[in-house]
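Hi, here's the filled form for the chain we discussed.

Project: internal
Contact: R.S.
Residues: 450
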Amino acid sequence: MPFDVTGSPSGTTSPSSVRTAGPRCAKKRPFNIMSTDENPSAAPQSLPVQEPAKVLLLEGIHKSALKRFTDEGFQVETRSGGLGEDDLIKALAGVHLLGIRSKTRVTARVLENAPSLRAVGCFCIGTNQVDLVAANHSGVPVFNAPFSNTRSVAELMIAEIILLARQIGDRSREVHCGMWKKTATHCHEVRGKTLGVVGYGHIGQQLGVIAEALGMRVLYYDIMAKLPMGNNRALPTLNGLLEQADFVSLHVPETPETRNLINADAIAHMKKGACLLNASRGTVVDIHALAEALKSEHVGGAAIDVYPEEPEANGAAFETELQNLPNVILTPHIGGSTEEAQEAIGHEVSHSLAHFETSGATTGAVNFPRVDLPPRRGTHRLLNVHRNVPGVLRDVNQIVSDLDANINSQVLATDNNIGYLIIDMEKNVSMEVSRRIAALKTNIRTRVLY
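And the returned structure, exactly as it came back:
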């Protein structure tokens, strides 16, 4: 297991990128090195005896993740609910890997007070519950599951499009209340109707494919150029899409640009009687503007799964202006809440975290330079996160040269704030090299992985 030497997090700007790597070999797990009393320049140095990596899983994360971590030999603690900031800081004492869903907030204060934390896994698509900038500056990569719940969300959107087209929510509620109201007024087939997808990522593309199979015409808008699936067609502007779509489905991340993306002005551009669906982020829609449009019947229906403010626990009271409005389907953020999706998410994120912990790989991290260096047999692996300023690699190489160390493999990747360096080197000097690198003013954190 790793030996840590951690410095103080900070950041600056000086983007660059360098990558070199040795030949690929078969993956192997970290191993123990026998100790020696000889001169470190002449014999392998011993690594301190380390406890297994400690993992904290919150919010009822699927048991598939627990199995992966226990199979790796990690110590795992699970909790069914989320934690507030103070309780999370206490719970993270000695924890190396943290797994959360959407309720737990990993703030800059949490990161500052969790010196042993090495990585965070968001067992969902969104990562806005983590301060990604602070995590980056602290040398903590954050992983998520961008693919695993795609089908579940897309299927829910298809179901809600049909439910809205037939006003099933209202008819069901009426029958539950003892009222019989059989009518075809304002009820339609979805075949031949136009679906507008805002945000053409994994979910938007999957939704477009299924909708087209139902006979719908699919338009999409995205700020990036995307390859259309099937006969899906891109439009150059959001308003152009809103003016043509019978159903508008939102699949965008939470960013300053998407906040209140669907506001009163955008709603005014929608076709009269069109329906709005949102399973992306609650801040994307101006709820008051939507409620007013529903009351005026400019918008013919809505299916909302996410809200600007959501309860932190099941059973909590919840209010929204959209309650009790006609042809409105309200669900409690369940877009990806299927057993299949949660199992797949458990596998996906636990794999990323375990791969990072055992090899230093950051492939799939959302806030970190991405590196995946194959292991080299018979070496020690050193991981270093540092401020991205000129001269760091020079200083590191000078340390290696001064100790007459031989580097077997080395890879460096950077972003605007930090550099992430992996070095496979001879065993006889690895601990001394790590100590000297950790003493550099540019160091954020350094550890010998194995």
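Let me know if anything looks off before we file it.
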